[in-house]
Specification:
The chain is of the alpha+beta class. The protein is built from seven helices and six strands. Helices cover 49% and strands 18% of the residues. The model has no long low-confidence stretch (mean pLDDT 87).
Length: 174
């Protein structure tokens, strides 16, 4: 009875799903399984796995190969982001990029001067050991926006946000 009460509470919170399993004689059995919401409560060590993989790639293939792989990953990310981001005007592309990043849980602020501030690093733990991740993000932004982007500061360096500035051709010295 105590176990059923606990299971009922977990089901009421949306953490368990119940289904009947028929088989053989007697009363139907209840089968319990975790919901997606419950799975999200368990720790995820993706950052540890990625960091170890990057260490292994760098030690076996060398840092240049790791950078080349990060570039390839950045290109794939750019393809994903570029899909919903359209518009001839840079301000419009920046606005679409903000919406796309925020849909992925990354709070972004776009400044009128073409600067972007990302207030959360999606790769924070990995970037602590591999600065190339920040460069990958910069190159991805360049590909999505079709403009040159400079890193002005990162959370990795202890700042409160990752700051990127879009450099327009008129911004560069003659």
């Amino acid at each position: 009875t105590a176990v059923r009460e606990h299971l009922s509470h977990l089901e009421a919170k949306g953490l368990l799903m119940t289904r009947q399993a028929r088989g053989g004689l007697g009363r139907p059995r209840l089968m319990y399984s975790l919901t997606t919401r419950a799975e999200e409560l368990f720790p995820k060590e993706y950052d540890t796995l990625v960091t170890l993989l990057m260490r292994e790639i760098a030690s076996r293939e060398g840092p240049d190969r790791l950078d080349a792989l990060l570039d390839a990953v950045g290109r794939r990310l750019a393809e994903e982001y570029r899909g919903p981001i359209a518009g001839a005007d840079l301000a419009e592309r920046l606005a679409h990029l903000r919406v796309t990043l925020e849909a992925r849980g990354i709070p972004v602020e776009v400044q009128p001067d073409g600067s972007l501030q990302l207030f959360a690093c999606p790769y924070h733990d990995v970037a602590q050991e591999h600065a190339g991740v920040c460069s990958m993000e910069r190159r991805m932004l360049e590909q999505v926006l079709g403009e040159q982007v400079q890193i002005e500061g990162t959370i990795r360096e202890g700042r409160r946000s990752c700051q990127f500035h879009v450099t327009r051709p008129s911004d560069t010295p003659a």
